Structures are given as structure tokens and as C-alpha cells.
Amino acid sequence: MVKTVRLQIKDGLGLPSGFISPATYDCVLYYTVPEDWLSDGKVTPEKQEAMLENMYGKTWRQGNSDGSYYAVLALDAKILSDEEMQNRIWLSEDPNDRNFKYWFYQVSETGEFKGVKREEF
Q1: Rounded distance, CA 94 to CA 27, Å?
Q2: Which of 7, 69, 105, 115 has its CA 20 to 30 A from that of 30?
Q3: Contact assessment for residue 56 and residue 42, using Cβ atoms and an 8 Å cutoff
Q4: In this predicted structure, which of 1-5, 70-74, 100-104 has the lowest mean pLDDT?
């Protein structure tokens, strides 16, 4: 069975000096995932890491060659209810709101991420 997860991230760019410049928007990512990505009503830690790797790149925790790095300042993962899925709640969010940027992915049984359009999700 497939479930849908809404991941909201507040992030920033960390500099070698330790200063973190927060992004001016939150990242909102929707994923359809295999049910085995979840445990006790939450995304398992290793699958949440796979989501972050999909967002920032496989080596994101190692930083960039210039010493900068992505910093996750806040993260909220929510499994959508059947009602939220039927109502396709992501369509009610304003894609032009400057405070948010949206991405949509389908994750296969083998863990492959496929980006899709909002309307196709």
C-alpha cells in the first residue's frame, strides 16, 4: 500500500565561518512512498535521510567544495490521512506564495525517486 508524506523543511546555507543564512522560504515536498518507509506513524530515520539526499544530493552532509553546506533548521514530516489524500490538499496550497516552494515525488518500491507535476500527483 502507498502512503503520502508531506515534508516541510526550513533550511539555510551554512558558511565556513559558522554563519547560517536562512532561506527566505520553506521547502514543501510531497512524496508517495511504499508503506514500509513508515513505522509507528512516522517516516523511518533512514528513509527520511533518503528524502534529504534526494533534495540536497547524496553527499550533502559532507558540504560543498567551498566549505559551505546545507543546514536543516527545522523539519516536519506528516503522513497524510486518507481524507487529505482524497481532497488532494496540495492543490489548495498557493504555488505562487513566496514563503514556500513545492516539489512532488513518487517513490518506487525499490526507492527510486521520480519527480512529477503537482497536477499529476
Answers
A1: 13
A2: 69
A3: no
A4: 1-5
| pLDDT, position 112 | 97
Rounded CA gap, 13 and 103, in Å? 19
Confidence at residue 98, expressed as pLDDT on a 0 to 100 scale? 96
Alpha-carbon distances, residue 69 vs 6, 26, 40, 54, 82 (angstroms)? 24, 17, 31, 15, 37
How far apart, in whole angstroms, are the C-alpha atoms of residue 53 and residue 69? 13
What are phi and psi for residue 64, nearest 5 degrees?
Answer: -100, 165
Q: Taking 90 as the threshold, does the pLDDT of residue 81 lie above it?
A: yes
Contact 101, 27 (CB under 8 A): yes
Considering only residues 45 and 1, tell me which one the structure prediction assigns the higher pLDDT: 45
Distance separating alpha carbons of residues 28 and 95, to the nearest angstrom: 10
